[in-house]
TrEMBL record:
Name of protein: DNA topoisomerase I
Native organism taxonomy: Eukaryota, Fungi, Dikarya, Ascomycota, Saccharomycotina
SUPFAM superfamilies with a match to the protein in the record: DNA breaking-rejoining enzymes, Eukaryotic DNA topoisomerase I, N-terminal DNA-binding fragment
PANTHER family for this protein: DNA TOPOISOMERASE 1, DNA TOPOISOMERASE I
Residue ranges, compositional bias (Acidic residues): 58-83
InterPro entries associated with the record: DNA_brk_join_enz, DNA_topo_DNA_db_N_dom1, DNA_topo_DNA_db_N_dom2, TopoI, TopoI_C_dom, TopoI_cat_a-hlx-sub_euk, TopoI_cat_a/b-sub_euk, TopoI_cat_euk
Amino acid sequence: MTENSVNRKIIATTSNKRKHEQEDKTVNTLSKQAKREQSISKGNVVNKVKTNLKIEAKDEDGSDSTKQEEDDDVNGFDEDQGENDNTFKWWENPEDLDGEVKWETLEHNGVMFPPDYEPLPSNIKLYYDGKPVNLPIEAEEVAGFFGALLESDHAKNPTFQKNFFEDFKTVLKECGGCPDADIVSFDKCDFSKIFQYYDDKREQKKALPSHEKKKMKEEKEKTEEPYKFCLLNGRKEQVGNFRIEPPGLFRGRGAHPKTGKLKRRVNPEDITLNLGKEAKIPDAPPGRKWGEIKHDNTVTWLAMWKENIMGSVKYVRFSQNSSFKGMSDFKKFEKARELKKHIDAIRKDYRSKLKSSLMIDRQIATATYLIDVFALRAGGEKKDDEADTVGCCSLRFEHVFLKPGNTVIFDFLGKDSIRFYQEVHVDPQVFKNLKIFKKEPKRPGDDLFDRLDPSILNKYFQGFMNGLTAKVFRTYNASKTMQDQLDKIPNEGTINEKVVAFNAANREVAILCNHQRTVPKAHQAGVEKINEKIEEMLWQKIKLKRIMLQMDKTVKKKHKEFFEEIEDLTKEKEMEIVERWCKKEIDRIENKFAKDSVKLGYEEKSMSKVDFKEKLMKLKEDHDKKLSKAKELTKQYKSEALKQKYEEKSTYTIEKLKVQVEKLEERIKNTNLQLKDKEENSQVSLGTSKMNYIDPRLTVMFAKKFNVPIEKLFTRTLREKFAWAIESADENWRF
DNA sequence: GAAAAGACTTAGGAGTTCGACA
DNA sequence: TGTCGAACTCCTAAGTCTTTTC
């Protein structure tokens, strides 16, 4: 029996017992808040389907089953799937995972189209050569796409500008040209009025009162509801991207040659729907029709269209928490676990082949080493109209530098044009091989692995294990690294400390997989701000201790260590902190006043003049009061710092002050932890590995074993995506 | 057998919401 | 209670791998 089937059997035989135990376990792992979320989300699903998914399913005898469906919902939904629980627990019967046919019946309401273009007000125009011009509406829309992005990095990219302008001119030509000017030069176009218009709109939306925002959100949800769910084999499932992508400018990453090109509007005629043969075909928007209707039950998409930039196909699929995605994840991680049994043999084989007399074998062995040790991607061939990025098989001469001492520097752009830069020590034979692969007549621009492509490599892998491909190595090594890191964590400390330790393990995996993010623009400023905050908290703490001594000098003798740090804060440093604190406080008050004034300005039209005047007066009064209070405090703190004598409030007691000091100490500790996390995570993105590479059962195991609520480790979305793991792994589970 | 098409996963950034803190 | 930054979700580009076509 394979480990895989053992695992399945364990899941199946324990599932009933687990049903009864689940509630107790849930108490341990889910907080009240998370449970509330769960029940709300389940309730919503039932309600939404009851009221909105008005799909008329026909039974085999042709009768209308909609009523029965509704009755089922009312009665608690799908009783065969567990009492009061509408979740389809496919993981309790994971045998039916494979097979050509993916579903028996599939019903859905089609897709949701973006709103039609809303023309600009008549006073907002593109300026050409200094003069406002009237554009045909189709061209105005395209100019608007660019105008809205004017302040972004994209709009400053010459390729983006060039591609946009070419497509803009094409659209102009298609609709008869501009009546006021012959638009031929990008440099003569001034989009600033258009930018200002969209920017104001954004600001106005942001400044809307919260009840307005809530109302808008509710309306949006109402229109989306019919598309959010579908019926798969009679069961409700959530649809993922049911909103058709709106038109806009293509935002290719890195140096993409097509970045900035016009992404055209997708029409119903462009869309192919995939439904069950018996399912009702949803109505196309009035006066329109669908491109094609398919009944292909060997695939899992609900709709597709061809996009005009790269000519590739876009699909509407099931959401991440659907049974399809869950099963697929489960299979992926089981495949990676299967690799455990073969990895020793594979490593032995490729190590021996590193010295093979056949060039192809040497290249296969060396590439496998890089994929296994440095978690490189396979690296398929790219076309000229794509960004120049590489993976293992497509590495070129210039991406690999060899240094004495078997040291190799890899420097290339990987997926999404993310730089992979690593200086590493490699196996001496790998070093020799790389030297051979770079030997003359090869020169920059030439492939390092000139005999290889991913399909050759994957064929080699499949000789060891069915279904083994290059990407399985990444999943295997990521999850294996996580397991090893988690094994090192001692089961002690606070929940926060355990979470920090978990994140550190997660970070190791993210670094292995080279999951980066651009350092946020405000990162350095943020770090400085936190450091200032820590200084201010230390100042407050020392002040409190000094007050304690003012009140009772004898306490110092009893708690010598406790008071040691009060000497650390010099008069000069204290003055510096006080001045900074006071300046920030005054800035804060002034900023708030400015913001509130703008907000009131937006509301002016909706109130009487008297009301407006009254509100403005009140705002000014509040502001003046706060400002004078802040100025008084400034005076007080400065005088305290100068005299090194602090105001004692009548409510102070030694005990109360001690409690305040302890609270500050706790906050300083937490802020220091936060700073450490911020620094270490500034360039590393933990989410991608957590979502795609780390077997979620490892996280569940950690949560249960270390008594950390699962919602500290998985967001709501991840808890839904990995429901199967939360229910099937216990504290002893191992990858 | 190579290239193209098709179907799926993986990925970072933009936009939105949440929660800590003053 | 309001503000601001962090956390989270959404969006869609960019990969991998399989299947189909020529």
